[in-house]
Amino acid sequence: MTCTSAAVRRNSATHYCASTSSSAAPSCKAAPNRRTPELVSLRRRSCSALLAALLGIVLALLPHQCMGDWGGSWQKGRATRYGGWDDGWNINEGSCGYGYLDQDHATGWDIAAMSDQNWDFEGSCGRCFEVRCDPTWISDNYGESFDRTGVCRDPDASVIVQITDSCPCWYPANQYSNKRWCCGDMYHFDMSTWAFEKLAEDRWGVIGIITRSVACDYEPEKRAPVPPEGECAPNTRISRPWGWVDRRPWP
């Protein structure tokens, strides 16, 4: 078996996954004066109706894609691979800071780096996605096209990956490749070779995908099996540290 590489690099030195923040919704309070209970109740109902209307307007103005994952909808994308013995990158050096990844914890070695240009990148560390191979033509950020209509092992089979790393658009140490795949021309994952080859032979380097956000313990209808030719073990440049604990969140 020969493992080949699509050399894409994430940022392993700086944490690019920012946490999300939330703010409390405004509240309407009845003035503590001499109004009758009926007027106070009417005032509260009016404020509630006004807030509901304002919330509806705000949600309507949000980009559709920002709400897509609320309903578990699929979206098209693209995936490259990294972390095989042949490419020099290591899945244990992800920017999310989870350290050495245990094959038997969380999603194991089925992980991915998310492009920092994806619309849902913020707060992506630790989130999980269901991914299927999409038999289609794809292109890179330089306009080159690739026929991937016949490379999927099974378009109906899925792999669940957890985000442990980022793929920054601006990465001077690997500028050409990162700009090629991770600069926002298409929704993009850089998947571990271990996960990628469950969907297609690793020699293809890049494939079309469809993906959706799921709970990390979600069981897909049809889980992609270990490929018949076996799997490429991840790059093991980092040995298991003494006292090590896999820090990935898990339900």
From TrEMBL:
<dbReference type="InterPro" id="IPR007112">
    <property type="entry name" value="Expansin/allergen_DPBB_dom"/>
</dbReference>
<dbReference type="GO" id="GO:0009664">
    <property type="term" value="P:plant-type cell wall organization"/>
</dbReference>
<dbReference type="InterPro" id="IPR009009">
    <property type="entry name" value="RlpA-like_DPBB"/>
</dbReference>
<dbReference type="Pfam" id="PF03330">
    <property type="entry name" value="DPBB_1"/>
</dbReference>
<dbReference type="InterPro" id="IPR036908">
    <property type="entry name" value="RlpA-like_sf"/>
</dbReference>
<protein>
    <submittedName>
        <fullName>Atexp4,atexpa4,athexp alpha 1.6,expa4</fullName>
    </submittedName>
</protein>
<dbReference type="GO" id="GO:0005576">
    <property type="term" value="C:extracellular region"/>
</dbReference>
<feature type="domain" description="Expansin-like EG45">
    <location>
        <begin position="93"/>
        <end position="221"/>
    </location>
</feature>
<keyword id="KW-0732">Signal</keyword>
<dbReference type="InterPro" id="IPR007118">
    <property type="entry name" value="Expan_Lol_pI"/>
</dbReference>
<dbReference type="InterPro" id="IPR002963">
    <property type="entry name" value="Expansin"/>
</dbReference>
